[in-house]
Every structure is written in structure tokens, then in C-alpha cells.
Amino acid sequence: MTWMDRLTGVIVLPLVCLSLKGAVLAAPLFFAGAGSAMPQSPKIPDHLEETAYSDLTGWHQDDHLAALNGFLRFCSRHEDPRDPTLPMNYGLDEIRSLCLSANREPINTETEARRFLETNFRPYRVTVPGFVTGYFEPEVAASRKKTDGFDVPLLGKPAGLEAITPENKPDDWPTHLSHGRRANSRFEEMPDRPAIMDGALDGEGLELAWLADPIDAYFIHVQGSARLRMTDGSVMRVGYAGKTGHPYTGIGRLLVKRGKGTPEDFTMTGLRSWLVNNPDKRDALFRENRSYIFFREVTDTLPSEGPIGAAGLPLVPGRSLAIDPDHTPYGALVFLQTDLPDLDAEGRSFSRLMVADDTGSAIKGKARGDIFVGSGNLSGDIAGRIRHAAQFTVLLPHPGRQETKAAAD
Length: 409
Description:
With about 400 residues, the chain is of the alpha+beta class. The chain has a domain at about 250-290. About 25% of the residues lie in helices and about 25% in strands. The chain is built from eleven helices and 17 strands. It has helices at about 5, 65-70, 90-105, 110-120, 195, 215-225, 250-255, 270-275, 280-285, 375-385, 400-409; strands at about 50, 120-125, 130-135, 140-145, 150-155, 160-165, 180-185, 185-190, 205-210, 225-230, 235-245, 295-300, 320, 335-340, 350-360, 370-375, 385-395. Strands 3-16-13-15-14-17 form a six-stranded mixed β-barrel. Strands 5-9-4-10-11-12 form a six-stranded mixed beta sheet, covered by helices on one side. A three-stranded antiparallel beta sheet has the order 6-7-8, with no helix packed on it. Strand 14 and strand 15 form a beta hairpin.
């Protein structure tokens, strides 16, 4: 049994059957942009340089079938949730070709999956230094009603909250605010965390659930999702629904800057311990992170599946990677080479092919990633220890796939 089995169970998805009706995948799910009759050439950004699979330490030891199944989840995507207009984009015909090729070829073994990846993708090394952390889905006790023991709310999305885009951005809108609240045909700045802690949204009926511990609530904000064990015996899963749009500030980093410890002292576990041991300083520290997250009840996933990521798909423990969508498109295959111990194989480092299907407020940069570990306390312990340098290598579709694409058409 692997470490992912022990945490939540590996979700091995079948190869996805592809519908030829309409677009299979829309921007920015790795191959953003309109489909065309002619093959499109990739636009390779300056921070990528082509390399060889033989130069990727750990490539041949990875489970390529699991990685490929994670990528093929995107074949069933039809909606177009965002449009970052990124480099590395391909037309929709390219993803259609890849999915058709995967379903046409017999891909039932590790060798066949690796052959498919090496034939259809080229590796490009990210030339800037990389860094990875870990995240998980917390499991905490909660109540559907406020009581003496459960009085810390998780809030739902306020009416009128919208992401600010180039299309709807007012001329005078502050550049540091990613979201706003539409009222009377204009956008207003949302209250930030300190204001919400002081009751700025009280009376709007936004409370989804009530927790016992403000530290639990804060970490759910950081993780973006949670399983709630309700006092009535039911289970509620909550996921990200929006945010105030204020910049995220890592409170662990603030403590390091103030000489309270080292980065190694303030892993997720270390930060939680500090907060527990300093209750008189806890809320003041929370207030310094102005970003505030809103949640929705998630009812469209199975209990065996992971939480829904930003790309709209259930996350896969050990394969899902949160990235900065300003630099890496959703659906991208990213090979990580790290010194993180691989808990599946003693004596081996964590070097594996990941799928970019989530993001987070603290995940910024060309080579910054957050590894989804799983759900529950054990996952949290593991995720909290992940703070490692990493080499990022992005796999881009092979530009010489015209013959394959033509045959698929």
C-alpha cells in the first residue's frame, strides 16, 4: 500500500472516451485558444529550454500510467472558466488529437504510457529556481448551527462578488485587488479579513458551517477546502467559492522576518503550534493577512474523490499540483525533481510527473508549486513538512504531430 493509498486512496481514472461534438477543452486548460484547420506551433517562453527525457532524474522510475490518467481527465472538459492568454498555448484541435490518440492506442501498462508521453510531448526545463510546498484537505468537526462550542464561521460567497478581468475592470480599479463586489452597476472593494473579523459581513446570512477553533478555520482558508464532520452525523465538503481579492500575506513568513524562528520552524505544523501557544497574539497575526476566502458546499464529487481544484476537477493525491496560472496553464504536465523523500519508495527522492489543476493565493512564480497530498490529519502532517527546492520541467505537445492529428481528423 502506497502513502497515497494510506491517506485517501489513489484515484486511478480510466482513459476518457472523447466526444467529437464541440470543443473538448477550452482555454486555459493547457491548450487554450480556438481550434483551427491548420496545426498551430507552440509559443515557447524564454524561461523554458528544451531538454531530453534521459536528463530527467527519476523519469524512468515514475508511474507514467497514473500521470497520464491524471492528464486525460481534461479530455472531458467543455467549459471555459478563465482566459489568461498564456504562452505555451495550443488550439483545441491539439487536445482533441492527443485524446483521440490515447484512446486509440492500447495504453494499459507503464511502458505503454511512458511511450505515449515521450512520443507526444517534448520536455522543457524551467530555467528559474523552483520551490514546492504541500497542501491537504483538512477534516474537522463542525456544526450547521452556531452553538457555545461552535462559533467560528466559514462564510459562503457574498452576492455580487466577482473576479476582476480585463473586460470588466473599471479604469480606476486598484491593481492589487483581484476581486470586487458589484453594486448598482459598479464595483466596490470588499471588506478585508480584519473588517470581516470585526463583523463587516454579519447579518448577510453567509454562514455555511460553524467550527470550534479559529486556527482550524484559518488553515481551511489557506488550504481552500475541507471535509467537515457535522455534529448531526453528516459530512459536508466545502470548497473555494471566491475571495475578497486582497493580497495574500503568509503569516509564517512574517514570524520569520520578526525573528521568531526559521522557515523550518514554521512549517504548517510549526505554525499551528505557535498559534496554539500564543493565543493572545493569534488574532492580531491573522489580521495581517488581508485576504479572506469564501466557500461553497461541494456536492458533485464522490466521497472517494479528492476536493475540486481550480480547474474544476477532483484533485488526485500525489499527482495534482497547484501552480500560478499566470505562468503555467491548467492541464500542463510538470515533471518535478526534488530532494523530498518519496514515501512510496524508501531511499528515493520525490521525482514524478504532476498535473497542473489547482492554484492558491500564495503560489506565485514560474517555478512555484504546491503538491496535493490528500485528506485528513496524516496528510496534513506530511504536507506540513514539504518545503523543498525543485527543478520544474514542463511537457509540451510535440509540434511534429501533424500526421497523427490529420489521421485523427
